[in-house]
Design brief:
The structure holds two protein chains of two kinds. By secondary structure, chain A is an alpha+beta fold. Chain A is elongated. In chain B, strands 1, 2, 5, 6, 7, 8 and 20 form a seven-stranded mixed beta sheet that branches. In chain B, strand 25 and strand 26 form a beta hairpin. Chain B is an alpha/beta fold. In chain B, helix 1 runs parallel beside helix 7 and helix 4 packs parallel to helix 5. Chain B contains seven helices and 28 strands. The chains are: A alpha+beta, B alpha/beta. Chains A and B meet through strand 5, strand 6 and helix 2 of A and strand 4, helix 2 and helix 5 of B.
């Protein structure tokens, strides 16, 4: 089995080739160990960070930018978006503050990426 | 005696870094911003990937800006928001700036000037799209503002023209917000954005990328009803007979950025036709003494970390500006390069660690960059890949360069 990926960890965008037959996975094309970890995750449980906005009650700043503090399973992204689209922030927040704790049971918080 | 040591125009990432660097050198700094908040375009960049070099973290753009705004809070920098610079004149070795703000009209003087005015998006009228003028045609940045700042949606069925990074980021953003992105069309035979953005913005969402195809015509009276797309030939000209109609209500344009240098040009600052920003030396001083340029006004960067780096350099150098004469020699990239910045080296100034930013003209595999000083190799660096969309940074030691030296740059096959 051989699969190719573009590593999205950093702007280098390494072109990775992962090969292996059930046993040890061999990754080539990576400039750093994060590339190997990325290829392994892509084949087992692909994860992504999610960046979006949530509505606020403040007319001067109708939306607040947020992101997941870590990565969540890629398959959970549609559900996470549906949840966050239905969320409205009713208080002022600082940059970095937790807006939603433990998003959909992933153990990952959603944090503000700007102040409002 | 001037009102300020340094005046910085534009409080995006370049201007914020420049103001902080000049303040750190003990100069009195004025930072002028036309919008209500500092941060520039980063305010609407809610996606992450910013700050990996600067902070060692993957931050959202607005988060990166917020860090700089916070740092600014602890300094003596005077930030003047909702303020336009209408005119700058060089008088008696200093700069007189005419400012318009809610307080009215005023003139202030500064010893040195940093122009961190960013860049502007190319529009539909600049890429020869014919047809009607319906609503629903947006530049990628405008669509981004609409969604990420105003909380609205530009449309439901979108076609994206141009595969630059902002276009790719918007393809994902629109999809996440429930719009349908029918495809990204790119006139060039290869994509313009970073590989990682093609992977995480298009592939992740099964958005098709159509290369060597462009939008030639808009349809619709009040609102866009569709676009005509056509194949293009090797000279990027549409091929007759290949036109097809794509029904959509929104066209997003990501067709290039142009450094904004109206103020620079009003001061007689010469621009580099290749980088499209001011010709400058290794300390970011333009060919007009006392005028510095940084960030996307200097050349369009793909990483904000490099924008901040040029802001740091320009701000620190502007703070130290004393009118001392320069001895400028050319840095000569050959035609293998799209451009290289800086274009000049001041051999009367420190030059042991000269940062050069460049883009290759074509996609290359296993290439070697070679920098020579008077025929002697001062830097050779091998690259597995060089791509025009991916800017590279090198650092060369030109400490032995004199005023008759010749600096040349080339890219060759790696041995």
């Amino acid at each position: 089995m051989t699969k190719e990926f573009v590593c999205i960890v950093c702007p280098n965008g390494c072109r990775l080739t992962a090969s292996g037959d059930g046993g040890e996975l061999r990754v080539t094309g990576n400039l750093c160990p994060r590339g190997k970890a990325f290829a392994e995750a892509e084949l087992t449980n692909p994860v992504r960070s999610l960046t979006t906005t949530v509505r606020t009650v403040f007319p001067d700043r109708p939306v607040l930018p947020v992101r997941t503090a870590g990565e969540i399973p890629k398959g959970k992204i549609p559900e996470a978006m549906a949840f966050l689209r239905g969320f409205t922030l009713a208080r002022r927040a600082r940059c970095g503050e937790v807006i939603v704790r433990d998003l959909l049971g992933t153990g990952v918080d959603v944090i503000a990426t700007d102040a409002v | 005696m001037t009102d300020y040591g340094v005046a910085v125009i534009g409080a995006g990432p370049a201007g914020l870094a420049a103001a902080l660097a000049a303040d750190k050198k003990g100069e009195k700094v004025l930072l002028v911003e036309r919008e209500a908040r500092a941060g520039g375009i980063l305010k609407q960049c809610v996606h992450d990937g910013f700050g990996l070099l600067r902070f060692g973290e993957k931050l959202a753009g607005c988060e990166y800006a917020a860090r700089y705004v916070e740092m600014l809070g602890g300094t003596a920098v005077e930030l003047s928001t909702l303020t336009y610079v209408t005119r700058i004149e060089k008088k008696d070795g200093a700069f007189a700036l005419s400012l318009v703000s809610r307080g009215g009209l005023c003139t202030v003087t500064a010893n040195a000037l940093v122009l961190s005015t960013g860049c502007r998006e190319r529009t539909a009228k600049q890429v020869d799209i014919h047809g009607t003028r319906p609503a629903g045609v947006f530049t990628a940045g405008t669509a981004q503002y609409f969604i990420n700042i105003l909380g609205g949606m530009p449309g439901r069925q979108c076609v994206i023209l141009g595969s630059g990074d902002i276009g790719l980021i918007m393809a994902r953003r629109l999809t996440l917000e429930g719009a349908q992105v029918l495809g990204v069309y790119e006139a060039k035979p290869e994509p313009s954005g970073l590989s990682r953005n093609l992977a995480q913005c298009l592939d992740d969402f099964d958005i098709p990328l159509h290369l060597s195809k462009t939008v030639t015509r808009l349809h619709g009276a009040d609102r866009l009803t569709g676009v005509t797309v056509a194949d293009v030939d090797a000279h990027m000209r549409p091929v007759a007979g290949t036109e097809t109609f794509v029904a959509c209500d929104t066209l997003i344009l990501s067709v290039g950025l142009i450094p904004e240098n109206e103020l620079a040009e009003s001061l007689g600052v010469p621009l580099d036709a290749r980088a499209k920003g001011p010709v400058c030396d290794q300390r970011y001083m333009t060919l007009v003494d006392g005028v510095y340029s940084c960030g996307n006004a200097l050349h369009v960067n793909d990483l904000v970390d490099y924008v901040s780096e040029s802001g740091d350099g320009a701000g620190a150098a502007a703070a130290a500006y004393d009118g001392a004469p320069r001895a400028l020699i050319d840095i000569r990239p050959d035609d293998q390069f799209l451009y290289a910045v800086p274009e000049r080296l001041d051999v009367a100034a420190p030059r042991d660690k000269t940062a050069i930013f460049f883009r290759s003209r074509t996609t290359r595999e296993n290439a070697e960059l070679v920098v020579t000083l008077d025929g002697r190799v001062v830097l050779a660096k091998k690259y597995r890949h060089l791509r025009p969309p991916e800017m590279e940074r090198i650092e060369a030691d030109f400490s032995s360069a004199g005023k008759n030296s010749i600096i040349e740059m080339t890219i060759r096959e790696a041995q």
